[in-house]
Each structure stands twice: as C-alpha cells, then as structure tokens.
Amino acid sequence: MTDAFARFVDGLGERTLNGRKVLVAADCFPSLHFLLNGLADRYGFTLVTVPLRDGEAYVRDDDFIAWRGADVALAVITWVSSLTSKRADLNTLSAHARGVGSLVAVDITQGAGIIPFDVRTSNCDFACSTSLKWLCGVPGTGLGYVAPALLNGGGMTPAVRGWFSQEDPFNWDIEQFSYAPDARRFDTGTPSVLPFIASAPGFDWVMGQPPGALRNQNLKLCHRIIEIVDEKGYQLVSPRDDTQ
C-alpha cells in the first residue's frame, strides 16, 4: 500500500503538488503519514494533518471537510481506520473535494473484501489496498486503481520506471522509451509473481462467499465484543453505529 501511494504521488509530481497542500487525517495508517511527510519537501507541498478532537480516537468527517480549501491539491482519505474501525463517508468527502478542486486518494485496506467498494461510483482518483486483511492474501502484493482521466491526458509520468512501464515491454531500444497508456506505466522492472500466486486462494475464497456473509458475521462478532466491553465497564473508542 505504501509503495502504491508513493508511485501515485510521484506520478502527480511537482506540476500538481508544488506550492499546494496535501490533506491527511491524524488517524491514518502511520506508514502512509511517514511517506507523505518524507515526500513533502521533494515535491514542494505542505502536509496538513487534520487533528483528533480532545478525548476522541478518530477524526470526524466534518473536521476533515473543515480543513479543505482551494489550496488543497490532494485529499488522502482513510476509508476505514486501522485504529478504531471508524468508516469515513466517502460520498460526502469526495463530493466536497470535487467542489474545491482537490484530487482524492483513498486507502481502502481495512475495508476491502468485507465492505463493497466500487471505483466507478466512489468518485476517487486513486485507491489502493494491500492483499492482507479481509482479502486473505499474503504480504508483497495488493491492488491499485488510477482514474482514467488522470492516465489519459493527465500527464502522470512516474519517475521510477522500467521495461514493464512501456506499452511493449520487449522494446529494447534504449532511445525509444514511452509510457504505457494505462496503469501499467506504474510498473517498473520484472514483477515478483510469487506473492500473487500465494494470494490467489484467499482471493478465491473471499469471492466465493455469499454477498454480505462476511460482513454479517463480522457485525455479529463486533456486537458481542461491544457487549463484553460494556459489561466490563471499559471505554469503547470505536463507533457503535454499524454504518460507521
């Protein structure tokens, strides 16, 4: 996931990011914040981290929106928090981003495989996930999406490139490199196929479950855990509302 985000930001480059802001929530996965913080100086953007409210464990959608403005080039949304399982309202956040001219990137890692996600209706420019978690895969691979509008005339030219970044990987003319017209331009050298092979059985199992079955089972377990938390008098930092 971190590598996929790095390639996306690199593809945007200074042309899109220099002198503007990148917005991220304080409850994002730490690896993502480490990455963006390190890239800020390289691409000339200011990283703005939307803070938690005092005494709260996740960033509210309203607070994320309040920090948005025309100077925000990219809004990085964590769909489901790895810390509290809080789910962001993607439709609301994406619509607001469009209204102020921001691009939208979404980390779907903690929800992919258990909550339906459709890139055709999410209104995002970029989305990615590891193959771990609910997808039941192994480390070393994942999935990524880049909106066609950014690929077709969007000027995305990632600096890290290799022979698999081309339309024809078997072009050996070192003076005639050209990016592939689709997401393959984010490939680099010879891919490592073993993680994909090892992840396939898990993917097949997830895809073979009845629609909604995994989510329903997950909710049953969550409800039971919440009951235990309440019985013990512990503080619950995750939302109680199933829609969140």
What does this structure look like?
The mean pLDDT is 92. The protein contains eight helices and six strands; from the N terminus they run αβαβαβαβαββααα. It has two domains: 2-208, Aspartate Aminotransferase, domain 2; 211-244, no CATH class. The protein has 244 residues and is α/β, with parallel strands linked by helices. The radius of gyration is 19 Å and the shape is globular. Residues 2-231 form the Aminotransferase class V domain. Pfam families: Aminotran_5.
Task: Supply database-style keywords.
Aspartate Aminotransferase, domain 2; globular; Kynureninase; six-stranded mixed β-sheet; 2 domains; alpha/beta; 244 residues; 36% helix
Q: CATH H-level name of the largest domain... which superfamily?
A: Type I PLP-dependent aspartate aminotransferase-like (Major domain)
Placed side by side, the strands forming the largest sheet appear as 2-1-3-4-5-6
Q: CATH fold name of the largest domain, please?
A: Aspartate Aminotransferase, domain 2
Strand content: 5-15%
Low-confidence segments: none
In short:
This protein has helices at about 1-15, 30-45, 60-65, 90-100, 120, 150, 195-205, 215-230, and strands spanning about 20-25, 45-50, 70-80, 105, 125-130, 140-145. The chain is of the alpha/beta class.
List the helices and strands and how they pair.
Blueprint lengths: L1 H16 L3 E5 L4 H14 L2 E5 L10 H6 L5 E7 L11 H11 L2 E5 L11 H4 L3 E5 L11 E5 L1 H4 L42 H14 L5 H20 L12
Parallel strand pairs: 1-2, 1-3, 3-4, 4-5
Antiparallel strand pairs: 5-6
